Sequence to fold (397 residues):
Amino acid sequence: MNLHEYQGKELLASFGVSVQRGIVAKTSTEALAAAKELTESTGTSMHVVKAQIHAGGRGKGGGVKLAKSLADLEKISSEIIGMQLLTPQTPPEGKKVNQVLIAEDVYYPGETEPKEFYISVLLNRATGRNMIMYSTEGGMDIEAVAEATPHLIFTEDIDPSLGLQGFQARKVAFNLGLSGVAFKEMTKFISALYKAYVGSDASLFEINPVLKTSDDKIIAVDAKVTLDDNSLFRHKEFEEMRDLSEENPVEVEAREVGLNYVDLDGNVGCMVNGAGLAMATMDLIKQAGGDPANFLDVGGTADAARVETAFRLILKDPKVKAILVNIFGGIVRCDRVAQGIVDAYRNMGDSIKVPLIVRLQGTNSDIAKELIDSSGLNVLSATAFQEAAEKVQKAIL
Ligand code: GDP
Ligand code: MN
Fold:
């Protein structure tokens, strides 16, 4: 689950990470009130208006603007709220901005060289450990830095049984070229950041930029936070941070009915039982020259009602040109599943307009094949994995 910047900053602050302070607003009137409140509590008279969408690169797309006065702030806010913001990370049509973060301007006027660092925490898949990834070259062009000068990006792996050690936080601060007060502030920042990452069961923190001011404050100016969905059951406090308007509507619906569905770009809808088989099925579709439209794990119970729900979800995607059902009947018998498919198909009238290819393997698979073949429905059965993928390929040509 992804958080908005303002939510990410609230989470970080609750773990003692120092962040650029701000207040979220849904209208320009609220934005104005937020700015006044910030001035009272922080003393800063300048503010930035920041579009809150689940995508980065907002600065480049015109979604982050400095307001020179309150009138300016009101005008900028009314322009950004409701706009369709296009950034290098949004879909081509952009994303609608429903709210803005009004934040204190932490770049002091006349600051000659504000130093922008890049700091993230994530899983190092090669070592299976959390790592801190960091660079002196933070700011809006970190992707270009990673591309052209990867040696300017450092990583620090953390031993899970020891946690982040003091010397590691100091090493990061040292490699970032800091000394004196800024060095100390950075070690504190890194320690709090790592504590927040572990404490919130996050899977990604990306803070870009982390700002060093001329008076040696270290501040998180941006925050991209992804929480691990598998841990949300033990973080009821995060539930209210989910913004359904930012999520794929079919994925939201699938979650509500307890199906594991991930939307993809291709045109072959898949219904599979078990995540491993689902991954293998997607590979096979690719190998046969196709492209999966989704990942869908129907789990252990593939009865008619569940199969029908799954078909309806898959068919909500207009890109789907064929559906492949690939189910292994171990505990669940294949003939039961076949009956479920036939019943669901009949029950749906003529709403399945694309070819359906069914491969059932395992207990009673021959009875299942017989059931499908004699159903008189427009369903192709397949026995081998490869055969199924090829039938799908022919169907979409
Ligand atoms: P992103 O473009 O989506 O990554 O959004 P960021 O929150 O990183 O903001 C983009 C850029 O706006 C930053 O790299 C900063 O250079 C700039 N920015 C952010 N906050 C302030 C601020 O308080 N004052 C000024 N002058 N610039 C800021
Ligand atoms: Mn950023």
Residues 56, 208, 222 surround manganese (II) ion (ligand 2) (CB under 6 Å). Residues 273 and 299 are 5 Å apart (CA to CA). The mean pLDDT is 93.
